[in-house]
Amino acid sequence: MNIQLRFGLILGLSYCTWTILMYITGLDTTRIDVGHYGDYLVTILPVSVLYLSIYAKRTTLVGEPLRYVDAVKTGIVVSLIAWIIYTPFLVLYHYLINPEWLDYVIEFQKQTMAESNMAVAEIDQRVEQIRAGSTDIMHAVNGLIFGVVVMGFLISSISFVLLRRWKAVPQTGGDKV
Fold this sequence. Notes:
By secondary structure, this protein is mainly α. It has helices spanning about 5-25, 30-35, 40, 45-60, 70-95, 100-115, 120-135, 135-165. The chain starts with a helix and ends in a 14-residue tail after the last helix.
């Protein structure tokens, strides 16, 4: 299987699994006060999977150096495949699995804003902004821009810097990466 496809499937399915685990444990619903930290923790997924995909790409280049364009292309394609998997899953999640997800998020945000002594009118304005920005189209576009282009590019660039000097070791026997 192609390196980019393999790692794109791994990343996309990992995002889906993470989202289901957050839901099952209540971290996306009743324990959102704790669960919002999971949004930071999940960053480990793209960082590790993109790094490993570029490492796998590098191992196929025996005798050749890893080129920057190859690293970035690998990272962006892996991110794009994950986005293609995760975006429709997120629509299913928002409509079938956890249709109240936005209400939970808004309630948490309202409590946080009220605790910081924000004016009621300003809270209401922010709630409307959250609702307006939480459409499926906005999630898809933000995922494409931030998740694929920005994160794919940044993580791939950093991975390239870390991996470019290491010599690829020829693989013997078994499946090639």
